[in-house]
Amino acid sequence: PTQHTMPNSHSSSPSNAPNVPPSWSETKTLTSTHIFRSAFSEAEFKMPTDEDNEGQDVEVYDVRHNENLHLNIGKQHSFVIHAQEWISERPQGQQQHGETLQTQRVLAFHGWLDNSQSFAKLAPLLCRYFPLHIVAYSDAGCGHSHWKPYSNYSPLDSTVDILKVIQALEWDGKDRSKAPHLLAHSRGAVCMMFFAASFPEYCNKLILLDAFGVASREAATSALTLRTAALKSDKYGNSNIRIFQDKEEAAELLQKNYGYGMTRESARCLVEGQLLKRAGGFSFSYDRNLITPSTVRFTEAQVLAFVTAITSPVMLLTPKSHSILENERDKVYQRFKILYERKNVETRFRVCNANGHHFHLNEPEACVGHIIDFLKSDGLPSEDLFGQIKAKL
Q: Which positions are annotated as active-site residues?
């Protein structure tokens, strides 16, 4: 292997680090709200420095990038999903004759109104330090993927499309050891959770970036939810398209609208995957029907049923600031509790030394070590720290 010192931000937390932030087991008043407030505001992991890694051999790979992968997921009619792929390869001069580098598959799915560019910084770093084949795709109606006429673009529709993408990639073999790892952010993580629960044979490990289940509602609100969605269905059309003079103007608006700690550089990266060239400038490429309210909302009981059905190892990775999970700590705690009570499957919660809801795009170097460490693991629980917490409740 090539002798290389990994940057401190690429390294994972120490091998003896618990599966949950120290504050989970050290908190004295162990209410769910207290635990999550403590985890989000106080938990920090010591990242190894260059001195810590000195003398270690780290194999470094070249990365091949295909920025225009087109997947036809339609059956009777063509429906194209745009994707990008990054593949680890041995550096020239180190390749053995006839050798094929054995890579693990990763399917990456972005958040609401984003596109495959959401992983444009993280994916090549992961492939550089671990042998992976990563495919990140733009959901229907997003980026440069086809639109669905008259669609409400519900999370369940997107979940069904995950299966179609896996089939188009021919990653749907019967050998679960070759099933892809699922890596997803925000709304994409919600859909990947639904998918992992419904199609466990196509999920090796599940990595969730700052999302853990959809925002639930009381069943009594169902009629009002449908009424609201129907009345607003024509509010957002594709007729009044805003034209931006240049990409920087589009990035400025994107950063302002997203909030949650998005950096300008991250906004610039995202707009590269969702701008169309028009007379007089550029416009966003996403279908405005994506903005319409959902016609159906899940109850918490339904969300918990999906969580209970997940059988794969799971890691939830969140930023140390601007996490959207702070808004629903109690629900997230109860959902995560179900996974921790599984006896034979690993469940991890990590607070990443990065900021912003798009932390994987803002500071991808801070995420790499956590993700690779999880991919390397045997998928079995190492400590029953959650059981210790439960005993004190």
A: 186
